[in-house]
Amino acid sequence: MTGFCQPHRIIMALVALALIGWSATTLRWDWVPDYAGLAALGLWRTIWLLVLSAALGLMLAIPLGLAQAAGPWWLAAPARGFCTVIRGTPLLLQLWLLYYGLGSLFPSIPWIRNSDLWPLLRHAWPYGLLTLTLSFAGYEGEVLRGAFRGVPKGQLEAARAMGMPRLTLLRRIWLPQALHRALPTLGGETVLQLKATPLVATITVVDIYAVASRVRQDTFITYEPLLLLAVIYMAITGLIVLLFRWLEGRIPSRVA
Amino acid sequence: MPDPRDARETVTDMPGQAAPARDEAIRVEGLRKSFGRLEVLKGVSLTAREGDVVAVIGGSGSGKSTMLRCINFLEHPSAGRIVIGGETVAMKSDGSPADRRQIERIRQSLGMVFQQFNLWTHRTILENLIEVPVHVLGVPRAEAVARAEALLARVGLAEKAQSYPAFLSGGQQQRAAIARALCMAPRAMLFDEPTSALDPELVGEVLAVIRDLAAEGRTMVLVTHEMKFAREVASHVIYLHNGVIEEEGPPDALFGNPQSDRLKQFLKSVG
């Protein structure tokens, strides 16, 4: 504990306590109980949008990165094209193109209206999830391209020299090492992804950001909902940072 | 299979007489290799029978590492023939292996030790040793672990089984890498300058392990800069210069009475 109780930490903690005390006594929080249920729902939506889009996006990013790092040109070129388009256009534009463009086109196509997917496609969230997933895949595909290339040749040669088949080599040696190298970047990108999620509020998905907007419209209280919203995003960011720190610490490699 | 050690002793005990023919482990015929317009190997041949220790010496750029790497196809030969245990490696016209499965099988029978150790940094030493036996060869985990632990004990690293490579010294890493190659129960070992990346005080411990392997009659091809060591353990020495074999023969003849001017000069320059 002595390690934790250092002067600068104690001062920061006192400042935080003072801020909390000040905002609790001078600001208005009477609206909170009315919106607690909705906020919980919104928070849940924000979190699963983040987790699902990051997980699915990463799964897409692996072949995108691999194709660019080591694939034949007819795989590398489309992968590079995809990453360039995704990274070259605003996320909001992608979201609106998919939702207002594709989403409004679908109802006019009979076989889509009659398909089993239609109940899903009538909602807004699949478009939000898809856009966020593709965006994450585009950025992380680029990150993993570098990470795959960055794994020292000797690590792969050792596996090849022992007769390891290519897929096993990818699964057991190349991918784990590339992911480990990319972890610090991926952590930062996941934090960015969290802060991209409020965009789904523009296509009627009620996430935590949309709940805060609703509070402001209903009650004409400006600062309190936004302050609380900021604290919530910071708390989630803190959790992401801790998670990635833990992941990085699991393999104590001093890569030379 | 006869114990290769016996075969080796037969040879040394009865010089003059025809030794009983031991099986060929590695044969390289007319090996050529070019990188672009640079021809690094200009027709090199060598044979290592079971129990042979073939040392390959030569200056930097002489092609000795490239030759070793062609044996297990880490480099694709431009021309020539590689025969491992009597089996000719099928090559396409550009020198790349024609049959991936065959290459994988042959590589599994050749334990390679690299200059830079190349232990997998994301796995512990024990995991490094059992990786291929368990995940490629399908050896039961308990069996692989038992063998790995025995080999680690043999190279003096029993207490490092759970450490990650980054926490070992260069000498320890190289000994672990040798144990990893041995874990595959290879037919022959290929050493690519195994002590060149080590601090001088760590060279001895690695050479001791290799000496130990030579003494038990293991077949190996050893590319090295350690002349004294080559003279001590090798049964046959090859001096490579500019991609051709300038001189070869038993170590005492080669080191004690070099014929070519180039080899004389080389031996003088390396002290």
TrEMBL record, chain A:
Coiled-coil regions listed: none
Ranges where the ABC transmembrane type-1 domain occurs: 43-244
Transmembrane segments: 47-70, 91-112, 226-247
Localization per record: Cell inner membrane; Cell membrane
Major location (coarse): membrane
Annotated family: Belongs to the binding-protein-dependent transport system permease family. HisMQ subfamily.
Protein name: ABC transporter permease
Domain of life: Bacteria
Listed GO MF terms: transmembrane transporter activity
Keyword set includes Ribonucleoprotein: no
Species this protein is from: Gemmobacter lanyuensis
Keywords for the protein's UniProt record, in alphabetical order: Cell inner membrane, Cell membrane, Membrane, Transmembrane, Transmembrane helix, Transport
PROSITE patterns per the UniProt record, alphabetical: ABC_TM1
Cellular component per GO, a single term: ATP-binding cassette (ABC) transporter complex
NCBIfam families: HEQRo_perm_3TM
Biological classification of the source: Bacteria, Pseudomonadati, Pseudomonadota, Alphaproteobacteria, Rhodobacterales
Entry keyword Transcription: no
GO annotation, biological process: amino acid transport
Pfam families: BPD_transp_1
Membrane topology listed for this record: Multi-pass membrane protein
From TrEMBL, chain B:
Residue spans of biased composition, Basic and acidic residues class: 1-11
Residues annotated as domain ABC transporter: 26-267
Keyword Nucleotide-binding: yes
GO molecular function, one term: ATP hydrolysis activity
Region listing for Disordered, in residue ranges: 1-20
Key words of the record: ATP-binding, Cell membrane, Membrane, Nucleotide-binding, Transport
Main location: membrane
Lineage: superkingdom: Bacteria
Stretch forming the signal peptide: none
A Pfam family recorded for this sequence: ABC_tran
Statement: the UniProt record of this protein carries the keyword ATP-binding: yes
GO cellular component, as recorded: plasma membrane
PANTHER family in alphabetical order: AMINO ACID IMPORT ATP-BINDING PROTEIN, L-CYSTINE IMPORT ATP-BINDING PROTEIN TCYN
Protein name, as recorded: Histidine/lysine/arginine/ornithine ABC transporter ATP-binding protein HisP
